[in-house]
Design brief:
This protein is mainly alpha-helical. The chain is built from 2 helices and no strands.
Length: 83
């Protein structure tokens, strides 16, 4: 709407337009807040996923070390029993 068209409007029409704009503004603010909350949630999930993956890799290393220790133990028992 041009300035000229706006000047021709009555006070009531201008107030009505202002109210509509205010409602739309409030709706958009709420939507932005909702989307920001959803982004935050996803960022937390992504960070936790990374932490879970790191923990799994560390556990995998622990299990490998435990397996090697068990194999060495069994090998020592076999070598002592066979001697």
């Amino acid at each position: 709407m041009t300035d000229k068209e706006l000047r021709k409007l009555r006070r009531g029409e201008l107030l009505e337009m202002l109210l509509e704009q205010t409602k739309e503004n409030e709706t958009l603010k709420n939507r932005i807040a909702d989307l920001e909350a959803r982004i935050d949630t996803r960022e937390i999930i992504i960070k936790e996923s990374g932490s879970i993956a790191e923990a799994a890799l560390k556990l995998n290393g622990v299990f490998e070390a435990a397996q090697k220790a068990a194999e060495q133990y069994l090998e020592n028992i076999r070598s002592k029993g066979g001697a």
